[in-house]
Amino acid sequence: MKILFLGDIVGKPGRRAVKKFLSEFRDFDFLIANVENSAGGFGITGPVFNELKEMGIDVMTSGNHIWDKKDGAKVLDEYPEFILRPANYPPGVMGKGYTVRKKNNFKIGVINLQGRVFMDPIDDPFRKAEEILDEIRSEADIIIVDFHAEATAEKQALGWFLDGKVTAVIGTHTHVQTADERLLKKGTFYITDAGMCGSVDSVIGTKIEDALYRIRFQIPVRFNVAKGEEEVQGVLIEIDNAGRVVDYKRIKERIESE
Ligand SMILES: [Fe+2]
Ligand SMILES: [Fe+2]
Hints:
Blueprint: E1 2-6, E2 8-9, H1 11-24, E3 30-34, H2 46-54, E4 59-61, H3 71-78, E5 98-103, E6 106-114, H4 125-136, E7 142-148, H5 152-162, E8 168-172, E9 182-183, E10 189-191, E11 196-199, H6 208-217, E12 230-239, E13 245-255
Parallel strand pairs: 1-3, 2-11, 3-4, 6-7, 7-8, 8-10
Antiparallel strand pairs: 1-12, 5-6, 9-10, 11-12, 12-13
The protein binds fe (ii) ion (2 copies).
Residues 8, 36-37, 63, 65, 173, 175 line the site of one fe (ii) ion.
């Protein structure tokens, strides 16, 4: 069983890049992608959700930006099997943070969590992970965690915390792919950040001029999605019938612009 995980898809360039990538690369059985920035760089809309679903994404994960467009909450509410928000938002928040899906005789659990370091102080992701594992451990053969977090240390800490308890802990949110992919001591695959799908000449997907203005002058500015050359970034994990990760590689593919 090969699982392809794609980092945050940013805006139209990100969607276009993923579509083009998937038209040539089919060597996987199950596709997970983080979609928190898929509509204009902020959140998701109904049409964008449908477009991504048609591309064959089995489970979409998200993060802090999923709330940016009002459609986000609606989509989360309507399609809890297909799109997740971080599970450790307080009880009462719409949407779901985990799901178990069947594919090729495997039951694949996907858990979405969000960090609290340099981010909004939502509930404890460590305790939430334990809670969810208690519930799905017996029914899922494979468990993939998308840890949407800013701080490397917090991501590594959750990796070690879940080592041997889940199949993979994959970081998202920074939009910058890290080169630290490995198997931890008890066999869990770990990478601090899977990266981003979107425009390369940008500040994490945003137009350079907009980001510079905001950062230099510290005043609000409308962020536009950057254009130009695109890249698809993520990881591909191969899992044997016993649920062990036997191979993995980072994906970092430049897509020819049109
Ligand atoms: Fe993001
Ligand atoms: Fe994020």
